Amino acid sequence: MTATSMDGRALAAKVRAAVKDEVAELGELGLATVLVGDDPASHLYITRKHEAAQEVGIRTIDHRLPAETSEDEVLELLRGLNVNDEVDGILPQLPMPGIDEARIIRAVDPVKDVDGFHPLNAGQLYLGRPTLVPATPTGILALLAEYAIPLDGARAVVVGRSDIVGKPVAHLLLQANATVTICHSHTDDLARQTLDADVLVVAAGIAGLVDPDMVKQGAAVVDVGQNRTEAGLVGDVDPGVAERAAFLTPVPGGVGPMTIAMLLRNTVLAARYRRGALAFPRV
Ligand code: NAD
C-alpha cells in the first residue's frame, strides 16, 4: 500500500480563495506585524506573511525594529496597535532578541491575537471553547477533515508538546472526540505509543524520528517537522512510512502551506469578533 498524500498546497489555495471572498465582503482589514532584530529567517517569514495577506486583500502594517529595541518600546508599540481601529490582527514575530516572550504574548489584545498564543485564547482552547487557535494546529485539523479522516473515537498520538503545535493540536483532537496521547522528549518507548495511533501527528523537529516500524498499518500520519538537512527540507517522518500509512502529509507541501492560510483565516475571524459578528469572551 502507498499512502495517499495529503496535499497542503491544494487545500491552502482553497482556504486562501475563501478568505479572499470573506475579506471582500467585510471591507478593510488590517494585519500588523512586529519584528525585532535582523534574523534573516524571521525577515523572510514576515515578508511571506505580508505577501500572502496582500494577495487576499488584507492591508498590512510592517514594523521592523532594530535589534537594540527595548522590551518597553515593543510593549508601547503593541499598546498603540491594540487601540488602532484599522488593525484587526497583530503578529509579533518570535523570538525577539533579549525580550521576554511571555510578556509580549500577554500584551497583545486577545481579540487581535491571530497567532492564538495569548493565555485567554489558549485557555479557551483548553476549556473546549476555542476562539483564536494557533494556525499550524488548525491547518492540521483542516487537512484531516479534507481527507475525511475519522477522529471520533480514534486513537490519536501527538509527538511533541510545544505551545504552538503539540499542545494545541492535542486539544483540537480531543475536542474532535479522539482519544489523545501526548508524547515528548521524556517519553519512554515512543514506538509503543505511536504503533497504537490511528492518527499520528509528529512535531518534534527531529529528521526521520518516526520510521515505518513505528506506524500502524493504515494510519493517517501528519508530519509537521521542518528540518533543514544536506538533502534539503525534510520532515520528522521517514518517507518509507508511506508504505504502511493510508494517509501521509508530504514535506514540503503538507502542513507548511496550511499555516499561513490559517493565519489569514484567523485574521478574518478576529475581524468578525472585533466587529461583533461573533461574540468574543471578555471578562
Ligand atoms: P519545539 O522544539 O518547541 O518542540 C519539540 C517537541 O518535541 C518538544 O515538546 C519535545 O519534548 C519533543 N521531542 C523532542 N525530542 C523528542 C523525542 N525524541 N521523542 C518524542 N518527542 C520529542 O518545536 P515546535 O515549535 O513544536 O516544532 C516542531 C517541528 O515542527 C519543528 O521541525 C518545526 O520546524 C516544525 N514546525 C512546522 C510548522 C509548519 O508550519 N509546518 C510550524 C511550526 C513548527
Q: What features would you describe in this structure?
A:
- The chain is of the alpha/beta class.
- It folds into two domains: 27-109, Leucine Dehydrogenase, chain A, domain 1 (Rossmann fold, 3-Layer(aba) Sandwich), CATH 3.40.50.10860; 134-256, NAD(P)-binding Rossmann-like Domain (Rossmann fold, 3-Layer(aba) Sandwich), CATH 3.40.50.720.
- It contains nine helices and eleven strands.
- It has helices at 8-26, 40-55, 71-83, 101-107, 119-126, 135-146, 166-175, 190-194, 255-274, and strands at residues 4-5, 30-36, 59-65, 89-92, 155-159, 179-183, 199-202, 220-223, 227-229, 232-234, 247-248.
- The strands form three sheets. It has a six-stranded parallel β-sheet. Strands 3-2-4 form a three-stranded parallel β-sheet, sandwiched between helices. A two-stranded antiparallel sheet has the order 9-10.
- α1 (8-26) runs parallel beside α9 (255-274), α6 crosses α7 and α6 packs across α9.
- The model has no long low-confidence stretch (mean pLDDT 97).
- Bound molecules: nicotinamide-adenine-dinucleotide (NAD).
- Residues 136, 159-162, 164-166, 183-185, 187, 190, 203-206, 209, 224-227, 255-256, 259 line the site of nicotinamide-adenine-dinucleotide.
What's this model, at a glance?
This protein has 283 residues and is an alpha/beta fold. The chain has helices at 8-26, 40-55, 71-83, 101-107, 119-126, 135-146, 166-175, 190-194, 255-274; strands at residues 4-5, 30-36, 59-65, 89-92, 155-159, 179-183, 199-202, 220-223, 227-229, 232-234, 247-248. The chain has 2 domains: 27-109, Rossmann fold (3-Layer(aba) Sandwich), CATH 3.40.50.10860; 134-256, Rossmann fold (3-Layer(aba) Sandwich).
